[in-house]
Amino acid sequence: MNVQIAIHRHMAGVSLAAVAIMALAGTAQAQTEPAAEPVPQAQTSDAPAAQSADIIVTGSRITTSGFNAPTPTTVIGEEQIANNAQPNIFNTIAQLPSLQGSTGAATGTFSTSSGQQGLSSFSLRGLGAIRTLTLLDGQRVVGANVTGVPDISMFPQLLVKRVDVVTGGASASYGSDAVGGVVNFITDTHFEGFKGNILGSITKYGDDETALVQAAYGKSFMDDRLHLVVSGEYDHEGGVGAGDFGTDLAGSRNWYRATTLMNTGQTNNGLPQYNYRDYAQPYQYARYGLINNGPLQGIAFDQNGNPYQFNYGSNGTPTGTGAVTNCYRGNSFCEGGDLSGAPGSGASLKSSLERINGYGRIGYDFADNNEAYVTVNVAQVKTNNQPSPGYGRANLTVQCSNPYLPQSVRDQCATAGITSFGFGSSNAAFPDPQVYTDRKQYRFVAGAKGKFGAAGTDWNYDAYYEHGITISDIRVKDIVLQNRYAAAANAITLNGAIVCADPAARALGCQPINIFGGFTPSAAALAYVAPHDNGPFQHTKLTQDVASLNFSGNPVELWAGPLSVAFGAEYRREFYRVNADPYGAGVSDLSPNSADYPADPLLNGAQGSNWAAGNYKNGRGKYEVYEGFVEIDMPLFDSEAVGRANLNAAGRGTHYSTSGTVWAWKVGGTWDTPLDGIRLRAVTSRDVRAPNLSELFAAPTVTTLPNFSDPFQGAAVQAFQNTIGNPNLKPEIARNTEIGIVLARPSWLPGLSLSFDYYDIKLKGVVSSLSAQQIVQFCYDGNQAFCGGFSLDNANPSLNYINVQPFNLASWRTSGFDIEASYQWQQPLGLPGNFTVRALGTHIRKFIVNAGIAGVDPVDQAGANNGNTPDWKWLAVQTYDSGKFSLTVQERWISDGTFGNQYVVCQSSCPASTANHPTIDYNKMKGAFYVDIGATFKFSDRVSLYGKVDNLFDKDPVASPQTNTGLDINPALYDTLGRIYRAGVRFNF
């Protein structure tokens, strides 16, 4: 397990090699004898420690020598962090098998409205980042957005000595959010000297150019009583930009095939409802325009505005009623044909990211073993991504009298006896929307820690107050106001000039646009349709205040050793306020005394939601938390005959201002058996997670669903998803049980460490929502309970909406086991130095999600590789270190899986397809195997040159097909960037 060796000033001469930390076995043990041999960090926590050292175990609040915590913990040490050579330490930790579903710069790039682009946050056990507690030196960190999760990019990364990952419930020790576990970053608070790191990297495809510069300085003053540490870092990651329409990705990447689950719309004809197909062609729109309904259906327009017959896939023929024969009406796709207007490849593969981080700590030893300190952390992270290209619009009604329409088509209108037709376009000539996020964080901590004597016993104390502020701004450029676009597209000839048909729109500056071809709208038209400087924006302020006081000591000597006790209390206040632009948030008259937002009868006033995407809303909320805890460690026996065992127990009472009082507890223990090196451990706990600010008080968020599959009409329509908060939510309750066995450096093979831990987590009252598609589908299937929260009217798509709100409805249950092993050879094959191998694996036996709604069947998501929970995830590392030169080879492996375990696979004689168990013709998603290799050469004890290649064999990601035209990949599991070359230099003076 994770250990922190706190060596006081009178122990300054003790060699760190004698207190080396190894992360394999998952528990910490202090012994009096020195280590037999130096062992690299991050191998096993059962290494001997120096006499008189204090051990702080992240999985517990107990602080005492000789303590073994029952909760497994993996430790990543400074050496492994350096060998992985990442610009963000998050990338190194997220590779651990127990972490599933973490988010970073390569996730969320397809989104306009989430606000989480570039946010680096951890998810343990696939339970989500909101159920993983991330700490900095054991202290809470203000959230980077309203979900409450912090951004690891904002931590002082060069000062991190190690990272402790507690893979078990820790709410009794640390409070809310620690359902999946805890990730604790331990910094070098007494660093002395000057060190730095310079790193550059680039992909094989010439993008994501990265430059990282880090530096840290530390010095002691006043006879080693005053300690000053400062650090700063700058990181610029260019990201991987968008490709083009169709299947063209950024660079020369060629793996995208527009893979989609085609919905036949048939549920009871003996054939599968969904077909796995490449090259899905949306037949409702084309790159520069397509008539998609009426007698002229199938006429498309080239870049010059010339009409031609659209090339439908699947040998499709337009019916004149919006459908296409031989194609998939359930989600409006053909297979093959002209894909030049498909937008899937036009999303960024990785957000560009720029981060600046400044950190300072000053501590003063006001007495022996007692320190008062202040830390300041100021950071900024800016990101940019393109969620999609152009502006896809599939349901426009165009008048045959439109003067921009070629005369040949106007003649065909007259022949057909029609005055209008349905029209769809990707509007490829429009500027591509861009999302910019800017997060600033200010974190201040004042505290004191140390020792004092009372009642004949030494006690440890740790007190701190933290005030954190996050300011988050999101701006979207070149996004369309939908009703203004419709007005600009409806052109007429007036007094010999082409103008907008609506006189009210003309009076407010409407300029006509030619939607038949690749004609770039005029500057005036774009200013009206997509005002660049007044696009969607959201300004959010979050504050966190924490006051914490903890004590620990050994008040009683028992038959087998001292009884250890820890207790404490904590107060926390979380607050947020968000303001958004009037076009998105809505105002009474869209005229907030500003010429930037004039009143406009075409736009929704109080409702807002006028943008094609990025309709942010106004909101605010807060809650307070009062809690206290007590933890004990009781030695049960200690003898050569039966070994040594301890009982560890903790309880915590927490009062939330929003939902009342809830209790968390844990009971566990360890047994060092008389068998050489074998330890048994077990723990069971009741853990809690309180609803966060977003779930309780979320400002209503509107997301555009441009191709929502409407089962009532059997076609894709445009709709708005309204996501709103629920202040009546209650805390989630989890029961977490773990049982493990450890073989820790036995005398007969001291370089070997093994561990096996089984886990079982039951989570009730899960805050969750059904998707918009599920809500509509369940209503369509006859469940009337879902029919009151949406409206779909294809004749007026601006009124289409589906309300999505969280409730304590669901329950989850997941179980599996972790395996960890390492071995170290000294002087392998007679070579100088040592060779170390380490492997970590997590197997998820089941991950059952029960929506808690009548008519909705539970689904086992274990092995569904389009999510976060593969059957197996492995990480293996082999390192040779001669002292002058080191070589590291790393393998990452994800097992094969499915698109979803709810599907019934068949090709013929299929059972009836239902919302719970739809039929499908293919349901296999291949895993992935990646190899990374790196090397370091030490010019001296002070300067090292290093290089690394990630994804050495340039493994392409596997398609993760959905039922829409999005970019069909899963960056949470698969590498989407390709081979990356890294090189840098480290120095330490």
From TrEMBL:
<protein>
    <recommendedName>
        <fullName>TonB-dependent receptor</fullName>
    </recommendedName>
</protein>
<dbReference type="Pfam" id="PF00593">
    <property type="entry name" value="TonB_dep_Rec_b-barrel"/>
</dbReference>
<dbReference type="InterPro" id="IPR039426">
    <property type="entry name" value="TonB-dep_rcpt-like"/>
</dbReference>
<dbReference type="InterPro" id="IPR010917">
    <property type="entry name" value="TonB_rcpt_CS"/>
</dbReference>
<comment type="similarity">
    <text>Belongs to the TonB-dependent receptor family.</text>
</comment>
<feature type="signal peptide">
    <location>
        <begin position="1"/>
        <end position="30"/>
    </location>
</feature>
<dbReference type="InterPro" id="IPR012910">
    <property type="entry name" value="Plug_dom"/>
</dbReference>
<keyword id="KW-0472">Membrane</keyword>
<dbReference type="InterPro" id="IPR036942">
    <property type="entry name" value="Beta-barrel_TonB_sf"/>
</dbReference>
<dbReference type="InterPro" id="IPR037066">
    <property type="entry name" value="Plug_dom_sf"/>
</dbReference>
<keyword id="KW-0998">Cell outer membrane</keyword>
<feature type="short sequence motif" description="TonB C-terminal box">
    <location>
        <begin position="972"/>
        <end position="989"/>
    </location>
</feature>
<keyword id="KW-0813">Transport</keyword>
<keyword id="KW-1134">Transmembrane beta strand</keyword>
<dbReference type="InterPro" id="IPR000531">
    <property type="entry name" value="Beta-barrel_TonB"/>
</dbReference>
<dbReference type="GO" id="GO:0009279">
    <property type="term" value="C:cell outer membrane"/>
</dbReference>
<keyword id="KW-0812">Transmembrane</keyword>
<feature type="domain" description="TonB-dependent receptor-like beta-barrel">
    <location>
        <begin position="434"/>
        <end position="952"/>
    </location>
</feature>
<keyword id="KW-0732">Signal</keyword>
<feature type="domain" description="TonB-dependent receptor plug">
    <location>
        <begin position="68"/>
        <end position="182"/>
    </location>
</feature>
<keyword id="KW-0798">TonB box</keyword>
<dbReference type="Pfam" id="PF07715">
    <property type="entry name" value="Plug"/>
</dbReference>
